[in-house]
Design a protein that fits this description.
- This protein has 12 helices and 8 strands.
- It has 312 residues and is an alpha/beta fold.
- The protein has a 4-stranded parallel sheet with strand order 2-1-3-4.
- The structure holds zinc ion.
Length: 312
């Protein structure tokens, strides 16, 4: 009896020490993980979907902040320097990236620019848009707004992850394939909305960062400003033009984008009776959404519903 008791005690002791070891080993594993830094939300979210907790992942842009005016802190620069993989967009808003990368030893770093993965197109100025006179037309950086582009980006990130961290390659390929299937479903859902719609024109009482999205689904659009405009106060003429378009074509929805000033869209909604809805461009997400683990696919699924209403 006593022997059995002693045996049980020693088994428990072994179990405790084993679990102690496991804990220690996990901590070591954390240090052994590769480190990935993404500048903004979409590539951050893509890496999270492909790699889960197998990597140390950082989003530089603080949740809820404006992506176009982002300036890195000294801490951000150290974060980039310590990355095995660094992912940025590569447009006008990322001019600071080139300056920083030039000053760094990047030999051990793999650098991905989203605009190098997909075919970038220039920002488009459509009728009624306000443009600053000296403003040059630049390549549109919002490449991720088309789910088809997101598929290419996820493929490229998956391949890079498999090369840099071959030990986990099988998992990355499996997760990447699963995520690509979700993105293709999303693309099909948007296409179905457009195929069954009564109209193909959308109106934004806001900036318009959806060039790639509109191209993909053959949508035409009117908006107050191009995608990366820093302007937020439209002229009376611009607002009147958009109100007129909505009234004339009986458009049921006026869109605004995320984390911005919705006053213009409010005014247009009041004047026309159109419903004000969000089309989320996914530059960044709110603190609450970030904490709740909201994904690109979640935001885009809401866009499918809001687009459906807008094309009625
Ligand atoms: Zn933008």
């Amino acid at each position: 009896m006593k022997r059995v008791f002693l045996l049980i005690i020693s088994v428990i002791a072994i179990l405790i020490s084993v679990s102690g070891c496991t804990q220690k080993k996990n901590i070591q594993n954390t240090n052994g993980k590769i480190t990935i830094t993404a500048t903004i939300f979409p590539p951050y979210d893509f890496v999270r979907a492909i790699a889960g907790d197998r990597v140390n992942l950082t989003m530089l842009l603080p949740p809820a902040s404006e992506s176009h005016s982002f300036e890195p802190t000294p801490k951000d620069i150290i974060t980039i320097q310590n990355s095995d993989i660094f992912i940025y967009v590569g447009g006008e808003s990322d001019e600071w990236v080139n300056r920083i990368l030039e000053s760094m030893d990047t030999r051990t770093m793999t650098i991905i620019s989203l605009m190098d993965i997909v075919e970038a197109v220039e920002e488009e100025i459509v009728e009624g848009m306000e443009v600053e006179e000296e403003e040059e037309v630049a390549y549109d950086e919002h490449v991720w707004t088309s789910p088809q582009n997101a598929v290419r980006i996820v493929q490229a990130i998956t391949e890079t992850l498999c090369k840099v961290d071959a030990v986990n390659a099988d998992l990355y390929r499996q997760n990447g394939a699963h995520y690509i299937a979700e993105l293709r479903d999303l693309d099909t859902a948007f296409q179905a909305v457009v195929d069954n719609a009564n109209r193909n024109t959308i109106v934004f009482g806001d900036r318009f960062p959806f060039r790639y999205f509109a191209d993909r689904y053959g949508l035409s659009y009117f908006a107050a400003f191009p995608g990366c405009s820093t302007e937020t106060e439209p002229s009376a003429g611009t607002v009147a033009f958009l109100i007129d378009k909505i009234k004339h074509e009986r458009i049921p929805v006026v869109f605004h984008i995320e984390l911005g000033n919705e006053r213009m869209a409010d005014t247009i909604a009041e004047e026309t009776g159109a419903e004000k809805l969000l089309l989320h461009a996914c530059h960044n997400i709110s603190k609450k959404d970030f904490e709740n683990g909201v994904t690109y696919v979640d935001l885009m699924r809401q866009n499918v519903e809001n687009l459906r209403k807008a094309l009625q």
